[in-house]
Amino acid sequence: MAAGPGGEGGEADRRLGRELYDRILAVADHMRKWAAHLEGGIRAYNETVASMESRMIVSARMAEDLSAGTASGDPDLEPIEITAREFSRPT
Fold first, then answer.
1. Chain center to CA of 58
2. Would you give the DSSP letter of residue 53?
């Protein structure tokens, strides 16, 4: 049978609760880092799309016009407008 609030079972419960809480905080920290990396990747992707639209596609169109090429159209690249949800510590 489990000990009462001041007994051995209560102390074990407190230790287990603290260990679980510490592990949750560690996972939350990993999630924050992961979100930052995802957002960095999305920013890099969006910068690449902007560069394609403003530089490369314009040059490709001019080259196509000069050579009377038969390209099938511009690539369909859309910026990503999603951000990772911030993980906040409960109060």
1. 31
2. I
CA 66 – CA 49 distance, rounded (Å): 24
Residue 68 confidence (pLDDT)? 60
Q: What mean pLDDT is predicted for residues 19-43?
A: 93
Residue written as tokens 């799309």?
49
- Phi, psi values for residue 76, rounded to 5°: -95, 90
Span 33-65, pLDDT tens digits? 999 999 999 999 999 988 888 888 778 777 777
> Residue ranges of the domains in the chain?
14-67+80-91
Query: Cβ–Cβ contacts within 10 Å for residue 88, how many?
Result: 8
pTM: 0.56
Answer yes or no: are the C-beta atoms of 74 and 57 closer than 8 Å.
Answer: yes
